[in-house]
Amino acid sequence: MKYLVLRLERTVEYLMALALAIMVALVFGNVLMRYLFNSGFAAAEEVARLMFVWLIFLGAILALRHHGHLGVAMLQAKLPRPLRRACAVVSHLLMLYGLYLFASGSWAQTVIGMDSYSTVLRYPTAFMAASGLVCSVSMIVIVAVNLWRIVSDHPRAAVPGDPVAEFAHPELHGSAK
Prior knowledge:
Blueprint: H1 2-37, H2 42-65, H3 74-78, H4 81-113, H5 126-151
């Protein structure tokens, strides 16, 4: 299972790199064409926007997986461990609810986008909305797994304020051997 998660993570990183490369090439090429030839590639802006949206949402998945989102654990660090865990459970349940809303909204936009098309390339705008769906469903899985770890007192549970939480993924901090 650990191998599968690491492979998925690596795939997301490669997809992000590909999206960034496509964005840079299209925008730079479009700028050159506008300045040198007084014309441009009409679809460059549309594709760059699509790549940007996917890049942001894929990056958000990785940031959540690596506990890289901003959080204030200062107050929770002062609490005793049982209260820290209780706060973590409540915050995870709230996150799951917010992600559920995000997923249902993204699903609705994806369905609507199946019948509407982009201006230049005429691809279904569902491709844009699907990025939110992929992001929200992935985040639901990540948050639910960590919630289960917190509730079952698993050693790899990431509890904000816990001194161990920052080392939940030692491979990210250079201490993996």
